[in-house]
Amino acid sequence: MKKTTIIALAGLMLSATVMAQKTNPADSLMNAMNKDTGSERVTIFKSSRMVLLQSTEMIKKNNLNFLVIHRFGDFAGKSGGGQTYFGLDAVNDVYLGLEYGISDNFNIDIGRSTIGGLADLELKYAVLHQTTNGGSPIAITLIGEGGVRPYRTFNSFSDRLSYFGQAIFARKFGPAFSMQLAPAYVRNNTPMPAVTGAPSSFFALAGTARFKISNRAGLIIDYAKNFSDFAKNNSDWSDPLGVGFEIETGGHVFTMNVTNARAVNEINYLSAGQGMAFGRGQYRLGFTISRMFDFNGGHKKKDKE
């Protein structure tokens, strides 16, 4: 029996020059997400999305976060290299999503992935926030998601459905380092991938570490482990791993990343991650753009005349 996954996180020395940004109205939008209106809540991450995983951060009430997440083709190997400009000519997955704050602690998200045409509806609830006074040393957030694959041939509508549940436990250990662990459960009514031995359901564990580089930039490492026998006994299986460089530029959070995962959605990359090996050049460049819109009316221009 293989041992439980070790989330190994190594500190990396990185020198970077980040262009100074002038404060503008868009800054205040990101600040509305990243700073608590109360005085004791700790902001652990810059964004609701890391490289692979979601974070414990929530979209504030009446704010809307528009997401574009992109995975290019293989960087090297038989499907990559110069013939595809190292994957830039190919597309593995594109995710378009919206995250809306029903309240500061309750979000509803919708999205759609290219892979399998998977459309998802998600509810995200912040159970607990880390606080500066030590009242709570960690943050806990729950995620429940349902997905449907609308275009492939299935025997029934129920066969099209998938489910994802996750609990995220996060902590900011200091000004420069934050970390989260996230056990998860995945259920596909039709086993994915469609090969012999693929399970209908399985457990997974994921972890994220963020190292602060400057007030607007950070280095992110994401890793996830599928605990099914199918993954354990499949020699072509590689667990999803991603490394990203995150920059906040006013109203945007932009993350450039390298990952072996083809898919963006958790259901897809946890269910069918086999055959993704860094050693064979099967890693991909990608990016995440997060753009916040504030519908609280706090930035309306004064009426003229």
Automatic annotation (TrEMBL):
Signal peptide: 1-20
Domain annotation DUF5777: ranges: 45-293
Top-rank taxon, per record: Bacteria
Entries under InterPro entries matching the protein: DUF5777
Keywords associated with the record: Signal
The protein, known as: DUF5777 domain-containing protein
Species, as recorded: Mucilaginibacter mali
